[in-house]
Every structure is written in structure tokens, then in C-alpha cells.
Amino acid sequence: MPGYEGRLELTWTNKAKRLLAAEDGAYEWVDPSDYRVAEVRLLEDLGTVGDVGQERAADNLLIRGDALNALRSLARLPEFAKHYLGKVRLAYLDPPFNTQQSFLHYDDNLEHSVWLTMMRDRLVQIRELLAPDGSVWVHCDDAEQHRLRMVLDEVFGPAQFVATVIWEKADSPRNSARQLSTDHDYLVVYSREPEWAPQRLSRTSAANAIYSNPDNDPRGSWLPGDPYANKPYSRGLYEVRGPTGRIFRPPPGRFWRVSEEKLRELDSDGRIWWGPTGAARPSIKRYLSEVADLVPRTLWTKEAVGSNRTSKNEMRALFPKAPSFATPKPEALMHRVLSIASRPGDIVLDPFLGSGTTAAVAQKMGRRWVGIERQAATLETYAIPRLTKVLQSTDRGGVTEVTGWNGGGGFRVLGVTPSMFETDGGIVFLADAMTNGRLAEATGAQLGFAFEPSPPFAGRKGRTRLAVIDGVVNEDVVRILVSALGAGERVVICGTGIDPDARSVLRELRPGSSLRKIPAALLAEYRTGQQLQLELAGTVAGPVDGESPTTNEPAGAVEVGAANG
Ligand SMILES: C[S@@+](CC[C@H](N)C(=O)[O-])C[C@H]1O[C@@H](n2cnc3c(N)ncnc32)[C@H](O)[C@@H]1O
């Protein structure tokens, strides 16, 4: 419309910045191009529990580390990306709600802008991981719910909003409440695509209990259905005589739902109910065997999915000696989320795993799962022992009985590795641990190469090979590498030093190949790549802090001489 510009959005302090997560849970504002937030971290093996397969990325995964690092690794490391990028069916997030409290196992008192940025950055990454039929469920309370909705609108688009579920978490009022005692939390649901369809819920015994069979109908239990139509129906105005001779006609302004012939046909088939004495107005029977499963609704009561007290009791049964984890969720609550938003075999992701409820329920329901948790102590005290009990079938609580779970399966514990860089006096260096194989693997990860050591190469991306040299790349090195290439292959050579003549030799010997000095070339890529990611998600309007505008060049595609330092 002429005269209008801009878009509706929530703004906040430092919205265009990113957050660096420290080990202790503190966050620090940094520029999006800062390597500490742009780097793709490797995932290292820390152990396995139960039966695992050959391919580690295809197993259930418990990842220790900051959620953003871990999510980026799942999306960017080729080994994991092939299993997770665009493949996650359900992401459930139960982050610290920003309630300004300190819990025993973690603090929950971030400034609003910090909380919003923390969530935005993880949601942007999760959106990439979601399958086209995927959905994201974010658990929160009144502290941030209204702002979170706007962030979700920005990241997923308003058309992808599905519903806000209200979960009755409290069993009794809190008489110490200063004003009103809050009974509920929210689960805000967005889908990846607007056509998302929930799974229907199996009918509960309570829902079935209203059906009965007073006339011993061989088709089973039924409910007397309304015989009247709400809208005008040309064949719906007639008189009908019941078994006792009583005459019935629709009330003024209403119509029979079926024609006279159809009503007679249903009656002769025993599908019309005239009341216990045959003197009531006709009802059309609705059989239990013919009704569909239940459409999910938005009000979830404690009777249906448990309350905070339920989850505390579940914790106590699992860990009689340890103090309860501060904010566990009931297994029945997660059972309902997983029933609506996933099927057996689907991948379920929880980047704020805590005591491991989502993973435990996913395991019991036959889903594949990935859980991420920053606190090593929480993993060691709660999530790992809990999931071990689930595998061994020594956890008989929660939804074990409902799911018929009998144990089995396994998972891997992975850790987000430390950064490949270090800073000294404002200058970025390769970290000391970055030698040989580790340097090659970490460098390949930044450039999107699968790590496939096959000397002299370290990785491959289609017909391009990767070589990483911990030293100076000169003309001789280039000649040796090019001679090892197959016909039609190119090479990306990364070296900690580059001899100026090497470039022209490479250009001549194998056009389309490139030469990069590390770490400078990687740092230069972060300046373009991360900015692009934010813009794609529609969360940053333009260049930040005087950075040069983003190019559409994919990371790893810079030609010789373009991105070296
Ligand atoms: C509300 S609790 C999750 C509880 C969980 N749903 C359960 O049933 O046990 C939030 C968890 O997220 C973890 N966390 C907070 N910030 C994180 C981050 N940036 N990356 C990974 N985990 C984080 C906390 O350590 C805490 O264990």
C-alpha cells in the first residue's frame, strides 16, 4: 500500500547480534561473524550404552554441549547432516523459562533480549533441521510467552502457527502467590509447512464410556445422534410416525438431517433409536466402531497428562537417593506430544534435555531421538542413568505400561568439541590441539567436507577433494596434490602458510581448484556465511555493524585468491 513501509516485528536490544554461551550458562553478546558463534564444532565420541549400530550418526544421540553448537553440528557436518537436515519430525523445547529464579541445577534469570536472542538463534537452526511434515513445540510460561510467539512468527512465519496448548501443571493453588496462583504452562506449536497435519489421538476409555448398547445392537455400543440439520434441507420437512404411533416433525425452523426414505431405510436396519419405550423422537445411532480417533485439543488437564507433582514422583521413583531434578516434565505429557506430532521411527529432537524425559518417552514409543544438554552433571546424574534404566527395562514408571515397553536398543553419548581457534591479544590462532588429523577434520567441517582421510586428501565433497597442510603450501606441494587427483577432480588446499607462487600454479594445473590460508580464510567465510543464515530466516534486515553485504556464495565455493588471508 503506498505510503507504508517496514514490517511488523518485535525489536529488542542487540537483535542483530549473536550470543556466545559460556560453560557456566552465562551469555556474552558478540558479532554474528565472531568465530566463537559461527564455527562448526566437531562431535566426539564419549561412550555408548546398550546396542548401537555401525554408523554413529544413525543412532539415538545424547549430545553434551550448548544447544546452538550441537544443532549447528547436526546441520553442517556432512556425516550428521545426511541424517538430520530436513529430517527431524518433532522438536520439543523446554528451555529455561526466564522466570528470574535460580534452580539447583541451572539459573533462569536472563535479560529479555538475551533470552529472545538465545531462543531465536536455536529456532533458526531447528527450522533447518525440521522435515517438511515436522513441527516445533516450545514449552514456556507467562514470563516470555507473548514475546516468544512473535519470535516464532519471525522464524517460522505466522501462517505456520498451529496452536497454543494449555497444560494444567498445578495440582493445587499456591496460597503464597502474591496475586493469582498460576495453574498452567503453555506449549506453543508451529509447523514447518502450513499443511502440517497432527496424528489423531487414540480414543481414551473416558471418551468411549459415553457409548452404550441398551438394545443389544449387534454392531456394538452407540450414542443417540442428533436427527436435525442446522441448515435448510429441501427434503428434510416431513412427518414421521414412531413405533407407538406418535407423530414427530422437526422443531420450527429446523429440518430432518436425512430424507424420509433414508430414515425408513435406517429404521428397518435398526439404526434408529426411539427411546426405551419406543415413544421418544427418533435419534440416529452413532456407533463407537465407526467414529474416528480423537482430534487433539488445546486444553490438557492434569488428569489426562499428569502435573508437576506427577513428574516429581516419577523422578523420585527413578532416583530415590538424589535430590529431584528441578523442572522435569511428566512422561504422559511427552507421550501426548509425541503421539500427535510423530510416528514410530521418526526423529524427535530435544535441545534442552534436562533429566531426559523426551528421550525416555521417545525410546518407549519407538521413535529415534537426539537430546542435547549443556550441563554435564545433569547428564551424568539424571539423563544417562534414566535412559540406561529405560533400555534395561528397570524403569517401570511413567508411560512404560501404556506403551508396552520391554527394554532394548541403545544410544551414543557425544560431546561438542572445544573450538579449533584460540585468541591471544585480539588475534585469532589455531588452537594447540589442532594438529594433523584433528586440524584436517575441523577445517573440513567449516567448509562442508565429509571427513574421509585418504592421504594426501582429508575429505571429499562431490568431485572436489580437500587437502589440509599444517605448514606452507608451495609449488611442490601443489604439484604433488594435483598429481594425486583423479580425472575431472578439483582440490581445495588449506595451509597454515601459502607461498605466493602456489596460486598461479594451481590455477594453471587444475582450474576451479582453490587455495586457502587457515585460519584467516575460515574467519572470512564466517563473515559471509552466518549473516546469510540470519537473513534467510528473515530475522535481520540488512548488514550488521558496517559488515559488507552478504553474497550468495555458498561457504566453500570461493575461487583461488578470493578468500585467503
Ligand atoms: C527446563 S529444563 C528441561 C527439563 C526437561 N524437559 C525434563 O523433563 O527434564 C532446561 C534444561 O536446559 C538446559 N539448558 C539451558 N540452556 C541450555 C543451552 N544453551 N544448551 C543446552 N542446554 C541448555 C538446562 O541445563 C536444563 O537442564
Q: What does this protein look like?
A:
This protein folds into 3 domains: 43-200 and 296-416, Vaccinia Virus protein VP39 (Rossmann fold, 3-Layer(aba) Sandwich); 205-290, no CATH class; 421-536, Trna Endonuclease, Chain: A, domain 1. 30% of the residues lie in helices and 24% in strands. Helix 2 (67-76) packs parallel to helix 4, helix 4 (112-129) packs parallel to helix 5 (145-156) and helix 11 (357-364) runs parallel beside helix 12 (376-392). The chain is built from 17 helices and 28 strands. The protein has 565 residues and is α/β, with parallel strands linked by helices. The chain starts with 17 loop residues before the first strand and ends in a 29-residue tail after the last helix. It has a 10-stranded mixed β-sheet. The site of S-adenosylmethionine has 20 residues, from strand 20.
Short description:
The protein is an alpha/beta fold and 565 residues long. It contains 17 helices and 28 strands. Helix 4 (112-129) runs parallel beside helix 5 (145-156) and helix 11 packs parallel to helix 12 (376-392).
What is the strand and helix layout of this fold?
Blueprint (H helix, E strand, L loop, with lengths): L17 E4 L5 E4 L4 H4 L4 E8 L9 E5 L2 H10 L1 H7 L3 E6 L7 E2 L4 E2 L3 H18 E11 L4 H12 L4 E8 L15 E8 L13 H4 L13 E4 L2 E2 L10 E2 L5 E2 L6 E2 L3 H9 L3 E2 L9 E5 L11 E2 L1 H4 L2 H11 L12 H11 L5 E4 L6 H8 L3 E6 L2 H17 L7 H4 L6 E7 L4 E4 L2 E4 L5 H12 L2 E5 L2 E5 L2 E10 L1 H10 L5 E9 L1 H10 L4 E4 L2 H17 L29
Parallel strand pairs: 4-20, 4-21, 5-8, 5-19, 9-18, 19-20, 26-27, 27-28
Antiparallel strand pairs: 1-2, 3-21, 6-7, 8-10, 9-10, 11-17, 12-15, 13-14, 16-17, 22-23, 24-25, 25-26
Helix pairs in contact: 2-3, 2-4, 4-5, 10-11, 11-12, 15-16
